Amino acid sequence: MAATFQTTRRVQFAETDMAGILHFANYYRMMEEVEHAFWRSKGTSVLARNGAQEISWPRVAASCEFSAPARFEDELALMLSVVKVSNRSVTFEIDFRRDETRLALGRVTAVCCAIVEDRFQPIPIPGDLRGMLEA
Amino acid sequence: MAATFQTTRRVQFAETDMAGILHFANYYRMMEEVEHAFWRSKGTSVLARNGAQEISWPRVAASCEFSAPARFEDELALMLSVVKVSNRSVTFEIDFRRDETRLALGRVTAVCCAIVEDRFQPIPIPGDLRGMLEA
Amino acid sequence: MAATFQTTRRVQFAETDMAGILHFANYYRMMEEVEHAFWRSKGTSVLARNGAQEISWPRVAASCEFSAPARFEDELALMLSVVKVSNRSVTFEIDFRRDETRLALGRVTAVCCAIVEDRFQPIPIPGDLRGMLEA
Amino acid sequence: MAATFQTTRRVQFAETDMAGILHFANYYRMMEEVEHAFWRSKGTSVLARNGAQEISWPRVAASCEFSAPARFEDELALMLSVVKVSNRSVTFEIDFRRDETRLALGRVTAVCCAIVEDRFQPIPIPGDLRGMLEA
After folding, report:
1. pTM (2 d.p.)
2. CB within 8 Å: B32 and A26
3. C or N terminus of chain D, fewer CB within 10 Å?
4. CATH assignment of B4-134, given 3.90.740.10, 3.20.20.190, 1.10.287.180, 3.10.129.10?
């Protein structure tokens, strides 16, 4: 069974646009926020260490489908599920809800990388992090 | 033959993150910027009028695949293609290049809507706008 | 005695820049976030109604001094004080703290406006809102 | 005579808010953009090198006064002036104009720093950079 996690997040004024709704690019920022909160809930960080290695998770793909607009001061539920864990990457799905209504459904795939001289080098997901994703 | 359009866009400092690269959510903002520049190049705006109707194009889906990072002060070529025009929606593809290297490839689908009492109501794409998309 | 109010706010990854710190423009967004949370704590919203009037508070000035950088995942205390209430405007001061350390000190002055045909028209602060600011 | 420099910048959709205007925090981002364009116009970058030293310019203060709103697709003139150069810092003033109308007037003070083990260490402004500021 893959990990699931939930946070709530209020829509801020600066995140709205002149159409009066949450600007669509902000959903991708929120996806990342809940992903990082997930790692914190496991007692670690998206920027973890693996022995001497510094680990980061650059995104290789992100998509989102938008069903209904969110508005200023809405309190959204962000429900994260781990939908796929492969050797070097993980795919999260994020369900954006306001009360019972789905507003958007996003997916993001991130690759486990060691940072080597400021460059990203893909590595197999370390066992302890894999365990958190598969818990 | 569907419309194509190109702009260039420099990566700004505030758009980078602590990993030293263009933060992935900003690609979605840039997709929208080139889409809006496309409409301007046709002599109109993404916020057009159709007689008494005010028209807007809310997004229903957006995705992006990231191949290589962009960095501060990089000058990116954003190449927009209209890949699908249906009765009420249009799909754009945006190819992000730095010199000959593809950094990312994005897709966004927007629905033609009339704004009625602050709400979005899908309508068939007006003929003059359709002509610009299919030119 | 003027009103005071406090929230906490975690620094998000997308808010950092390639220097590895919270980008300075985000302090202004956070100032606004705590201001809006203040209004909510009073049972109203920054977008209030005054009878038939829709009220908004555009900024006329905002400044911030930065003493020490904030970093990813820092949990900041944002302490808002109402430092001046005049006939039509209010000045808030926001003290950004990480533990006991002041990171920044900001000020923002907003003018009470009625929205009339999409334009801002300054008005005297309605009595009930004034009461909240002076409480 | 201190240096002056000018760019133009179109207001993007994602930079507007539900009040229909350019969100005030974006003025600070634009101030930084024109500052960085100024350095590029001099043949260098805000992230310069001084021999073996890597140089950065963290902000210690920024303020802005807002006179009139900017709206989507407005083309703004951003006029930068160097108003003060001291031993270790520089103050820029940025005048935001739409045609002949001043929309905002901002000031930002940045300190010349060497980056030493990921920390900012103030240093006297190197002579070649000082020359560009005072030209």
Report:
1. 0.97
2. no
3. N
4. 3.10.129.10
